[in-house]
Specification:
Heterooligomer composed of large and small subunits. With 73 residues, the protein is an all-alpha fold. The protein has one domain: Orthogonal Bundle (Helix Hairpins), CATH 1.10.287. The longest helix has 35 residues. The chain contains three helices and no strands. It is 85% helix and 0% strand.
Length: 73
């Protein structure tokens, strides 16, 4: 089963691309439907946390791009 404490630590340790790769793995496992319900719930929760992290990362990147553009205008 997924350890959510390790996920939180892992969020800062993995690159954005690695986060996306893990999300793709989670989607494949969930789509397969072969995992036990408890495991699927844990994976869903992990996926939601990773998705939120990626969303926040993209928002920060967008803000940075906007700032750079405004400084160069």
């Amino acid at each position: 089963m997924t350890d959510l404490n390790n996920i939180h630590k892992n969020l800062q340790d993995l690159s954005f691309e690695e986060q996306l790769q893990r999300l793709e793995e989670i989607v494949e496992i969930l789509d397969d439907g072969e995992a036990a319900l408890d495991e699927m719930l844990a994976l869903y929760e992990e996926g939601m946390k990773r998705s939120q992290y990626c969303r926040e990362y993209l928002e920060k990147a967008e803000q940075k791009v906007t700032l750079i553009q405004s400084q160069n205008s």
